[in-house]
Protein backbone atom coordinates (compact mmCIF):
# COMPACT_ATOMS: atom_id res chain seq x y z
CA UNK A 1 0.00 0.00 0.00
CA UNK A 2 1.12 3.56 -0.64
CA UNK A 3 -0.13 6.98 0.31
CA UNK A 4 -1.39 9.53 -2.17
CA UNK A 5 1.88 11.50 -2.23
CA UNK A 6 3.87 8.38 -3.08
CA UNK A 7 1.43 7.47 -5.85
CA UNK A 8 1.70 11.00 -7.20
CA UNK A 9 5.49 10.80 -7.21
CA UNK A 10 5.56 7.34 -8.74
CA UNK A 11 3.19 8.28 -11.58
CA UNK A 12 4.06 11.93 -12.12
CA UNK A 13 0.41 12.86 -11.59
CA UNK A 14 -0.59 15.57 -9.13
CA UNK A 15 -2.29 14.77 -5.85
CA UNK A 16 -5.16 16.96 -7.02
CA UNK A 17 -5.58 14.84 -10.17
CA UNK A 18 -5.57 11.64 -8.12
CA UNK A 19 -8.33 13.02 -5.92
CA UNK A 20 -10.27 13.94 -9.05
CA UNK A 21 -9.87 10.39 -10.37
CA UNK A 22 -11.41 9.15 -7.15
CA UNK A 23 -14.31 11.60 -7.45
CA UNK A 24 -14.92 10.28 -10.97
CA UNK A 25 -14.78 6.64 -9.77
CA UNK A 26 -11.70 5.94 -11.86
CA UNK A 27 -9.48 5.12 -8.90
CA UNK A 28 -10.21 3.72 -5.45
CA UNK A 29 -8.39 4.01 -2.17
CA UNK A 30 -8.82 2.70 1.33
CA UNK A 31 -8.58 4.92 4.36
CA UNK A 32 -6.07 4.30 7.13
CA UNK A 33 -7.23 4.57 10.75
CA UNK A 34 -5.96 8.17 10.66
CA UNK A 35 -8.02 8.89 7.52
CA UNK A 36 -5.20 8.96 4.98
CA UNK A 37 -5.78 7.55 1.52
CA UNK A 38 -3.92 4.33 0.83
CA UNK A 39 -3.62 2.76 -2.61
CA UNK A 40 -2.59 -0.75 -3.65
CA UNK A 41 0.63 -1.00 -5.66
CA UNK A 42 -1.43 -1.81 -8.77
CA UNK A 43 -2.81 1.74 -8.66
CA UNK A 44 0.29 3.08 -10.41
CA UNK A 45 -0.51 1.03 -13.53
CA UNK A 46 -4.14 2.09 -13.36
CA UNK A 47 -3.18 5.78 -13.14
CA UNK A 48 -0.92 5.40 -16.18
CA UNK A 49 -3.79 3.76 -18.09
CA UNK A 50 -6.13 6.59 -17.08
CA UNK A 51 -3.54 9.12 -18.27
CA UNK A 52 -3.22 7.34 -21.63
CA UNK A 53 -6.98 7.28 -22.10
CA UNK A 54 -7.22 10.99 -21.25
CA UNK A 55 -4.38 11.71 -23.67
CA UNK A 56 -6.34 9.84 -26.34
CA UNK A 57 -9.16 12.32 -25.82
CA UNK A 58 -11.61 10.20 -23.84
CA UNK A 59 -13.71 11.99 -21.21
CA UNK A 60 -13.81 10.68 -17.64
CA UNK A 61 -17.31 9.17 -18.13
CA UNK A 62 -16.06 7.09 -21.06
CA UNK A 63 -12.99 6.04 -19.11
CA UNK A 64 -15.14 4.99 -16.15
CA UNK A 65 -17.23 2.86 -18.49
CA UNK A 66 -14.18 1.29 -20.14
CA UNK A 67 -11.98 0.57 -17.12
CA UNK A 68 -13.87 -2.52 -15.90
CA UNK A 69 -13.53 -4.02 -19.37
CA UNK A 70 -9.85 -3.22 -19.58
CA UNK A 71 -9.08 -4.45 -16.06
CA UNK A 72 -11.30 -7.55 -16.00
CA UNK A 73 -11.25 -8.39 -19.70
CA UNK A 74 -15.05 -8.40 -19.82
CA UNK A 75 -16.68 -6.73 -22.79
CA UNK A 76 -20.12 -6.57 -24.31
CA UNK A 77 -20.56 -6.23 -28.07
CA UNK A 78 -21.63 -2.62 -27.50
CA UNK A 79 -18.49 -1.87 -25.54
CA UNK A 80 -16.33 -3.47 -28.21
CA UNK A 81 -18.04 -1.26 -30.80
CA UNK A 82 -17.33 1.77 -28.64
CA UNK A 83 -13.68 0.79 -28.22
CA UNK A 84 -13.35 0.28 -31.96
CA UNK A 85 -14.90 3.69 -32.62
CA UNK A 86 -12.47 5.33 -30.18
CA UNK A 87 -9.55 3.57 -31.87
CA UNK A 88 -10.77 4.76 -35.28
CA UNK A 89 -11.08 8.32 -33.96
CA UNK A 90 -7.52 8.17 -32.63
CA UNK A 91 -6.27 6.78 -35.96
CA UNK A 92 -7.94 9.68 -37.76
CA UNK A 93 -6.38 12.16 -35.37
CA UNK A 94 -2.95 10.59 -35.93
CA UNK A 95 -3.47 10.92 -39.70
CA UNK A 96 -4.39 14.59 -39.33
CA UNK A 97 -1.30 15.23 -37.21
CA UNK A 98 0.97 13.46 -39.71
CA UNK A 99 -0.50 15.60 -42.51
CA UNK A 100 0.08 18.77 -40.48
CA UNK A 101 3.66 17.73 -39.73
CA UNK A 102 4.32 17.01 -43.41
CA UNK A 103 2.97 20.42 -44.43
CA UNK A 104 5.17 22.12 -41.85
CA UNK A 105 8.18 20.20 -43.17
CA UNK A 106 7.41 21.44 -46.69
CA UNK A 107 7.09 25.04 -45.49
CA UNK A 108 10.33 24.76 -43.49
CA UNK A 109 12.18 23.31 -46.48
CA UNK A 110 10.93 26.08 -48.79
CA UNK A 111 11.70 28.81 -46.25
CA UNK A 112 15.18 27.38 -45.68
CA UNK A 113 15.86 27.33 -49.43
CA UNK A 114 14.61 30.92 -49.76
CA UNK A 115 16.69 32.04 -46.80
CA UNK A 116 19.84 30.56 -48.35
CA UNK A 117 19.21 32.47 -51.58
CA UNK A 118 18.55 35.73 -49.75
CA UNK A 119 14.79 35.79 -50.29
CA UNK A 120 12.71 36.64 -47.29
CA UNK A 121 9.25 35.48 -46.35
CA UNK A 122 6.77 38.37 -46.54
CA UNK A 123 5.51 37.48 -43.07
CA UNK A 124 7.92 38.74 -40.43
TrEMBL record:
Keywords: DNA-binding. GO terms for molecular function: DNA binding; DNA-binding transcription factor activity. The keyword DNA-binding applies. InterPro entries: DNA-bd_dom_put_sf, MerR-type_HTH_dom, MerR_fam. Residues 1-69 form the HTH merR-type domain. Pfam families: MerR_1. The keyword Coiled coil does not apply. PROSITE patterns: HTH_MERR_1 (PS00552), HTH_MERR_2 (PS50937). This is DNA-binding transcriptional MerR regulator.
Amino acid sequence: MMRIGELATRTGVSVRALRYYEEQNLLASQRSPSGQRQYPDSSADRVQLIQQLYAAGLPSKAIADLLPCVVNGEATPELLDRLSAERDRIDSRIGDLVDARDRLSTVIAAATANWRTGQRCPIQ
